[in-house]
Amino acid sequence: MQSIQANGYHISFSNNGYISLNKIIRENNYSSLFILFDSNSNELCSTRFLSSLETDVRIEIIEIEPGETEKNITTCVEIWNILTELGADRKTLLINVGGGVITDIGGFIASTFKRGIDFVNIPTTLLAMVDASIGGKNGVDLGNLKNQIGVINIPKMVLIDTEYLTTLPQNEMRSGLAEMIKHGLIYDTSYWSKFQQLSQIDFADFDSLIHRSIEIKNEIVMHDPTENGIRKTLNFGHTLGHAIESFFLENENKKTLLHGEAIAVGMILESYISWQKKLLTKEEYYQIKSTINSIFEVIEFNENDLQPILDLLIHDKKNEYGEIQFSLLERIGKSKINQKVDTELIAAAFGDYKT
Hints:
Blueprint: E1 4-5, E2 10-13, H1 14-28, E3 32-38, H2 39-52, E4 58-64, H3 73-85, E5 92-98, H4 100-112, E6 118-123, H5 126-132, E7 137-142, E8 145-152, E9 157-160, H6 170-187, H7 189-193, H8 206-223, H9 238-250, H10 259-276, H11 282-295, H12 306-312, E10 326-331, E11 334-339, H13 343-353
Parallel strand pairs: 2-9, 3-4, 3-5, 5-6, 6-9
Antiparallel strand pairs: 1-2, 7-8, 10-11
Helix pairs in contact: 4-5, 5-6, 5-8, 6-8, 6-10, 9-10, 9-12, 10-11, 10-13
Keywords: Cobalt, Lyase, Metal-binding, NAD, Nucleotide-binding, Zinc
EC number: 4.2.3.4
Enzyme class: lyase
């Protein structure tokens, strides 16, 4: 697949990506390479990745536990200390190999260690390939609040190797599909249509779907790197989705949701709100709801869940002057940002979701 040029870096694929990575290592004369894995990506992906490196530069491996609960400032401090103890300096390259937690936290650690060292993202999950590793957002959670601390800082490159997807369980693959579906809904009607009959997709061509999803996100970010305008469209499904994800993460009586599982719910809820605000048609809303529910399990909410989820909305990063700002759908393929929504309409969306 052809490389994609982003703002100040490139996104390369498969064998060409490894050629580009080795060229970057060679031309930048790094003093050391530090590879950040979680225990899953270390076990399942390290052999393929390390065998692709062509360098005599010293390599150190850092491993953390997997999962969203590790994406916090305490983990950052531990890794900053390891970097220091093992002699990392301003000419160290940090390579982040793993899912979205690894690319998010790794980019943040690199951006802040010694006021910034180079980093490369090598996503190994579908979600990270089409979303988390692209666009320069790096950061950590604050308690159960998603992505409250972070920076926007670009990597030296992103390397997409879809062979790593063979290591994923089905629920992780499905989680990544949520962001791909979102890209179609906010930007590309023909791309969205491919997910309406998922069973008919020729998965021999799945790499091309991944490539197009990355293209869509990159095109949006290129127009608005710092999220002052059109980049906010990428938050469709995420205002309520992040609140739901945080609520399920902190509630011991709830099963922890994968990011994409929560965003799938958020997209249905925010599509309902779009319909009720006379942006979407009824037919479009039901098309979105039925398509997403054909791919993702319906999540159960009880009457006591709504208020805690509403309380979490105040922490959404798009909020301005204390007001919650939604990115909704004006129609399938087009978004409308900075939309205010009252709590009664949100409650009605949850009510409709259960039917």
